Amino acid sequence: MKIAPFLTFVGNQCGKAEEAMRLYTSIFPNSEIKSITKYQEGEAGGTPDLIKYGVFTLNNTEYKVSESNYNHAWSFTPAVSLFVDCTTENEIDILFKELSSNGGKIMIPLDNYESENYGFGKKFGWCEDRFGVSWQLNLLE
Question: Which of 36, 85, 132, 133 holds its CA 20 to 30 A away from the CA of 96?
Fold first, then answer.
């Protein structure tokens, strides 16, 4: 059995999946876009400029994506986020900056939590990137 996160880009995020994949694979080590399959002309769910099914890896973990211009009643939510354990302070600082910039949103500022530890590590932050995907970044002790 294999389990992989699946990100569906709909609503205002529809059409941005490839841009998101390129950002993510550029900032995480050991990452690559494995495949992109676009919709065929006239195919239900999308148009030829949209990703029907894509696969990419972030630090050797596989993710899947799709996008649909159908009027869905849902989109991304912070209730489900990608949790990243970082091993260096430089790594967490760079990732947090890249993910929260250019239209992203900071939900918990990246800070040291020696006096008020969230129980994860010594530095923690939570942000939403410009595509609406939530990220929790944690510096391991």
Answer: 36
How confident is the model over 110-133, as pLDDT tens digits?
887 655 556 667 899 999 999 999
Measured in whole angstroms, how far is the alpha carbon of residue 87 from the centre of its chain? 19
CB within 8 A of 90, min separation 6: which ones?
none
Q: Residue type at 116? A: E
* Inter-residue contact 22 to 33 (CB < 8 Å): yes
Percent of the chain with pLDDT over 70: 94
What distance in Å separates the CA atoms of residue 140 and residue 133, rounded to the nearest whole number?
A: 22
For residue 72, which of 39, 38, 46 has the smallest C-alpha distance?
46
User: HSE-up of 97 (CA within 13 Å, CB side)?
Assistant: 6
Question: Rounded to whole angstroms, what are the CA distances from 107 to 24, 94, 114, 134?
Answer: 19, 17, 19, 9
DSSP assignment letter at 20 = H
d(CA 6, CA 11): 16
**pTM for this structure?**
0.91
The number of residues making up the chain comes to 141
Confidence of residue 57 (pLDDT cuts 50, 70, 90): very high
